[in-house]
Write a structure and sequence with these properties.
The chain is mainly alpha-helical. It is built from 14 helices and 3 strands.
């Protein structure tokens, strides 16, 4: 496990244990001078640069404020197992905690390797970092095209919708276009962001409650995008209506579909038990 993945794993455990959201952590981090968004925190597990000393310090202070507990850097790496570092070296979690606590520590070196990263690898890493905007642009395009080509109801809603202010703000947080936010909400919930937030918050909900629900929806969207990037296509609930819609079309216009039972000149004979042809 790489160090950035280990840090995100710790964040995930704190979220679960303390009932926190990525938006809360990002908001608290901004009080300490960071420019974090929920998408940035989620991206830590795939972006090695997220494990900088600055980010670790900010994270510790943000989690301290939110949890009310005193934390130190070594708390970010609980348990056992090895952590991969840059280059060919690694370190056990126990030794890493020692290092962060100012004690003597040992590194693990892979056989035949060295502690310095190859320049070629550095160049590849830089190329990957530069490709992130292109990746998010492709994700945005995929989501919009999927919605436009979806079931008739989804298509019509998407074609006549302009992103709201909430969707524009959400887009800035997760790193995709406002239209893509509209699309992923529609594909996931069958409604746009403001409608889904209002449904969850209920009638006459306070602005604070609606704000909390909006943050939760954005976090869910961010997780779907992360899955889409790392694991492949997402099963959007709205697309499950395709088969039902197709059945309705066939029933209404069977002449448009190559169904043998409707075109076979011997179908009446066969129905009566004859030999047909």
């Amino acid at each position: 496990m790489r160090i950035n993945e280990a840090i995100y794993s710790y964040i995930d455990s704190v979220k679960t244990n303390k009932g926190l959201t990525l938006d809360q952590i990002a908001t608290e981090a901004r009080r300490y001078g960071a420019t974090w968004t929920p998408g940035f925190i989620s991206g830590m597990k795939r972006n090695a640069s997220g494990a900088s000393l600055f980010n670790m310090l900010i994270l510790i202070k943000a989690l301290e404020s939110l949890s009310g507990e005193s934390l130190v850097l070594s708390d970010l790496f609980p348990g056992d197992g090895d952590i991969e570092l840059d280059g060919e070296s690694s370190i056990s979690r126990e030794e890493l905690r020692k290092a962060l606590d100012g004690k003597q520590f040992e590194l693990l070196r892979k056989s035949g390797g060295n502690l310095f990263e190859d320049p070629v690898i550095q160049q590849l890493n830089q190329s990957l970092l530069q490709s992130v905007p292109d990746i998010m642009a492709n994700v945005s395009n995929y989501l919009v095209v999927t919605a436009i080509n979806g079931p008739r109801e989804i298509h019509n809603k998407m074609a006549h919708h302009s992103p709201t202010l909430s969707e524009q703000r959400a887009a800035a947080k997760v790193g995709i276009t406002p239209s893509a936010i509209s699309a992923i909400c529609l594909l996931t919930y069958g409604r746009f962001l403001d409608e889904e937030t209002a449904r969850r918050a209920g009638e006459n909900a306070s602005p604070q409650k609606r704000g909390r629900e909006t943050r939760l929806v954005i976090e869910e969207i961010d997780q779907k995008i992360d899955y889409l990037i790392n694991d492949g296509p997402v099963n959007f609930p709205a697309l499950n209506d395709l088969s039902a819609e197709l059945a309705d079309r066939i029933a209404a216009h069977p002449e448009e579909y190559a169904i043998a039972a409707n075109r076979d000149p011997n179908k009446e004979i066969e129905r009566e038990g004859g030999d047909g042809r």
